[in-house]
Amino acid sequence: MCRLMAYLGSQILLADVVTRPNRSITRQSYDARERLCHDILPGSLNGDGFGVGWYANPRAKQLQPAGCESKCIGTDETPCVFTSVTPAWNNENLIRLSAKISSSLIFAHVRAAYPGMPVSEQNCHPFSCGRYMFMHNGGVAGFKQLRRKLVASLSDQIYDEVSSFSSDSSVCFALFLNQLKCPFEKCTPNEIREHLETVINIILDAQEEAGITETSLLNFVVTDGNCVVSSRVVSNPSERPASLYYAVASNFECVDEKAGEYRISHADGQPQVGIVASEPITSKCTDWTPVPPNHVLMLVRGKGGVVDRIVAPIRMRRNSSLDMRHLQISRCLESLLSGVSLPCQMFSGIDLEGIACDDVGQDPRSALGDKTLQSYPILSRVESWSSMDQWSDSGIEKVSSPRSMELVQHVHCYNGEGPGHFGRISALVQHQDCLYTSAFDTDIKVWDLTKHKCINTLKGHTGNVRNLLIHQGNLYSSAAHIIKIWNLQTHECILNINFSSQSREIFSMICICDWIFIGCQDDQIYYLQVDSGARIEEQDTHDHPPLSCSPEHRLIRGDSMLSAQFAMLQEVAGPTFRAPVHGHDLDSGHCAAVHALTELGEYICSGGGDGLVLVWGISDMRLVCQLIGHKASVLAMVTLGPQQLASASRDNTVRVWDLELEASVRTLEGHTDSVVDLVVDRGYCVEDSFLFSASKDLTIRMWSPADWTCRRIFVLPTGHVNSLHVISLAGRCIVGGCNQGTLYQWDLSDETSAAQPLHRIQSVDDGLLASPDTSTSSSARRDGITWREMEKKLRQFVKIKSISGDLQWQDQCHKAAKFLARLLEQLGTEVKLQSNGDDNPIVFGRLGRHPDRPTIVLAGHYDVPNTDMGDSTHDLEAVDGYLHGKGVSDNKGPVIAQIFAVKRLLQLCGTAREMPVNVAFVFEGEHFHRSLGYKEAVRSNLHWFEGAEMILMSNTQWIGEDRPCLTHGMRGMINLTVQVDGPQTDLHSGVHGGSFNEPLANLVKVLGNLVDSHNMILIPGFYEDLRSSCQGRNPCREDTLLSEFEVEKYKKATGIPNTSVHTPQELLSALWCSPSLSIIEIGYGEESRKLRKATNYSIVPRVALAKINVRYVPDQKAEQLIAKFRAHVEHEFAKLRSPNRLEVTVQAVGHWWLGETESPFYKAAAKAIREEWGMEPLYVQEGSTETMTSILEQLLQAPVVQLPIGQASDSPNLPQERIRIVNLQKGCQVMTSLLQELGAQQNEQ
Predict the structure, then answer these.
(1) Residue 161 near residue 302, CB atoms below 8 Å
(2) Phi-psi region of 473 (alpha: psi -120 to 50; beta: other; left: phi over 0)
């Protein structure tokens, strides 16, 4: 059988992977140890030819074949290939060439042709065409019978391009090329995977149609020069597949040149090398992991040369159950690839004004200015530890620190001569006054924290020690595939657990009771139970008998523990919380190495190289949910609270997750390189807690959970921190382990570097509705209690800064959503929180599901706009009968009124079973951010609104101060941007003014032809399709209505000096019934904005833009108005004969809405208003737009009734926002009466 090998990593000589290793592909050509003896592949030497392929540094222009339509002309990215029909072990040219050629991507193949296959150079692998190389190990069963049909499916271009179809491998390569638009086309790894799967399915389908039952072995390896994608396929699952292994490590190096001994090294913990091979090419087999049968392996070069590895099941056409799994794989690859070019953000939250753009991405110490040092104190008081007091000064290096930083001292222990580590420190753990540290030097050091001295060294591991943890009075350590348990008193090894039989390396580890959970290199999470009383008497740890770990003990496969074994685990699993609603049914878990594990209550969370955070139930070992957001490998995780988790990633960010929402509630940015470790300092109280993140950018950041701002930055003089720990002895300290084997310590209690005062974290746990007082039968007494409760809850609600459209406040929006969820739960409501991506969650609720009763939907929003009004507006104040605070009128007050209206109805009826209506709730959090994701979320949850007959909203205002209103119409809205682009850069008016057409001047001329001085829109055809008058108003009430629209009163209230209308009728028509076009803002490019800070009157902007808002009315259509607007603007711009460029962009569209005032629902609302206010309501319209009104009416096929409760003077979204207490109370009563009336109408029918 053929043997193959592929290398992806740093530049290396071909000889170091092809000829020199004692288990190289050349050696395997005559000494293959894992050949299969198969019907179509007899056991024989691999001596029927060989080939090597590699990619050189791109220099020359590449040539494309005739007929190629892909626009991919550029540097030469095609591979070099050398093949021969002679045996690889006897080819001198191969030895000479491989000793002189180096590359970062190498293919090698030795061929064994089975009977009927010709031996020729055209059939030697790797095959190449365009930018692609391809190898095959195995065979296509019944190839002679299938060849004609397979070749007939090829395009003419591919048929002419491939030189031979005499072998099954060459036809497979042709089928792969046939999936591409062009052989020079650059594809993503996911697209290559999909193309490879298509080829496999084509072959298997052809065999099935032809009735071929023999087994095919399809081990393919393909590359485009950037990634390597390989498959291991056996058509008959009961047969043994051809062997295929992979190894991912930090280095592939020679340790004994004479003996040809090479090794896989994990020196710095960062995977820089990936190798795929039919057989291991090193003698240490535990470095290699077999690719699972019928899986595909992808090696992707990521940020900083890191090689990410993804393993995924191959989706056969006869198996559609993997669709969800493949969606997950696609998301992982998209995240990993997007992280390759992820822009670095320098110290988010710090004022960067004055720091040159070139500083971004450099050493952060050199980029930090004095202002930064003052804003975020950088602690430079570093102590280093040594147990050799007699060391001379020559052993201490003094490093000059930047700016105002003090002297830094540390001891170098690189050569093993000192007491410290000489390899990368990988883990820190504290027990009493001792600190245990491990490194990639096989040793575990024990440090006395009181003396800063190394007091012992624990030896026994032969591999790099990755993990340390303290559990049940013992120290657990892992290195390679070995776990050791040490007695903390005697420092003796008491138990050895060996996973060598499984050929996997342990990357992460946690302990829960007597159970050990480990995350491994092979994507799996294993668990086993350890007898805590077990003890090894022998002193030689190398001879300790191992405990075996059965392969079926895999967390991700869902195998359950015995209930008896788990009983004790449940008792001590920690605090529990409501399990999130989920619908995931994935075939398995991670598709890359598991780098991090942490316990979170009744769950275990895992982070992998695929960028995913997965949550597992401890009790049944089943996947609960997956958290998607990181754009690179997840390297560390830490528990923040019973429902919160933080994860660190190679994408330079830290994400804070809420498991109840299954979403990221905050992304912490600022690091400029991979974040490698996290630790929580829980302090002396909750308010004193901090999250620390360590990064390869030489910094440690301290984050406050109160507002998730960065409070301090600790800068290292050299190296980068790989591991962190907070110690508590006579004050708190943060300890970091460096990649150079050095430990650094900062004193957190140092008053000279004290952090800024923290704000107390506001808890929503007390934000629950109190149970109604049933001790009295007086409804007035009950209502009095309700009003006090309602004001209390509104105060707590307003306090939450749920500002949408700004990630800085995303966690506050999640907090507001959970606040509402808990209020609804106290009513007995079913509740669901749904968040789509980074959008704020939507709260769904349902109370009652009686098919014989009408379902009324209560809708609103909990977010407020970002108006920079200061923190004081989030504190509710009662002044002169009014409640003042941000969102109190729009829309937090009305939302609270809706919830308490249902509570009053429950009090009146006794129980939910006696309520005359079913009630559904939907509250969104992106109202001021274009209601992003709202329509999709409602559409996917229509079952929550089953039987909906009416939608009740309260998101408008009265038109006056004393007369209640019912709103029955709103205008639509179109937001557009008109942009004029001119020269490539901004120009100085004193130097270039008058020599060119200025974009801003062009834009002003175009804008001047949109509206005339009487507010008439000049766009041709804009007033077509208008209704003749405002619809739905009752003429008998028109005089009362018009009295609210006196022109002079309107001018005084708004401060407008003069209007373009003269009568109340004209004013009402202009505000409600006529379209309008407003120029909201005129601006210029970001570059001009920066320059104008210094010179306001000299810079001519290269870009000018205007923001336009159009309000349109029934029965106008948005798409037609947009087309007319664009045509008019382009026409006016063309008249200028300007060489500049004009672009019109549609930013948002909201549809108009009209309600039917004669419907039974409006009549019921009017009746409820009469009963509570003692007067008839005014039927009014609004000139504004409410997106969710039209969305709900369209999706639920139910009418909307807008019931405003606030006055015209409430000033929503302004600093003086308020709502009258009487309006809030009566509004709540009106809603309760309306629900009763709607139930009564149903009973009458």
Answers:
(1) no
(2) left
**Contact (CB, 8 A) for 234 and 40:** no
b/e 184-218 (16+ beta carbons within 10 angstroms → b): bbebbbbbbbbbbbbbbebbbebbeeeebeebbbb
Q: How far is CA 675 from CA 636, 651, 658, 668, 697, in A?
A: 8, 8, 20, 11, 8
pTM of the model: 0.63
Q: What is the mean pLDDT of each run of 10 residues along the chain (1245 residues)?
A: 90 92 86 64 65 78 51 69 89 91 94 71 90 93 90 88 86 93 88 93 92 92 94 91 90 88 76 91 82 91 82 71 55 55 30 29 36 30 32 28 28 41 84 87 85 84 89 90 90 83 76 88 82 43 35 33 27 28 47 90 90 88 86 91 90 90 86 90 65 89 86 77 65 75 73 30 28 34 62 93 89 93 93 87 95 96 82 80 93 96 92 93 92 90 95 93 93 95 90 93 96 93 77 47 74 82 83 92 70 66 95 93 97 96 94 92 96 93 88 95 94 91 95 94 74
Phi, psi values for residue 1166, rounded to 5°: -65, -40
Other C-beta atoms lying within 10 Å of the C-beta of residue 578: 11
Which residues participate in catalysis according to the annotation?
Answer: 2
Alpha carbon separation from 1243 to 916, 947, 1159, 1200, 1237 (Å, rounded): 9, 16, 17, 21, 10
Cβ count near 154 (within 10 Å):
18
Please state, in angstroms and as integers, the Cα–Cα distance from residue 1020 to each residue in 311, 973, 1008, 1124, 1228, following that order.
59, 19, 15, 7, 47
Is residue 344 classed as helix, strand or coil in its secondary structure? coil
User: DSSP per residue over 1207-1227, as a string?
Assistant: -GGG-TTSTT-EEEHHHHHHH
Going by C-beta distance under 8 Å and a sequence separation of 6 or more, which residues neighbour residue 1162?
Answer: 966, 968, 1155, 1156, 1201
Work out whether the CA dihedral 554, 559, 563, 569 comes out positive or negative.
Answer: positive
- How do strand 3-13 and strand 102-110 relate by DSSP bridges? antiparallel
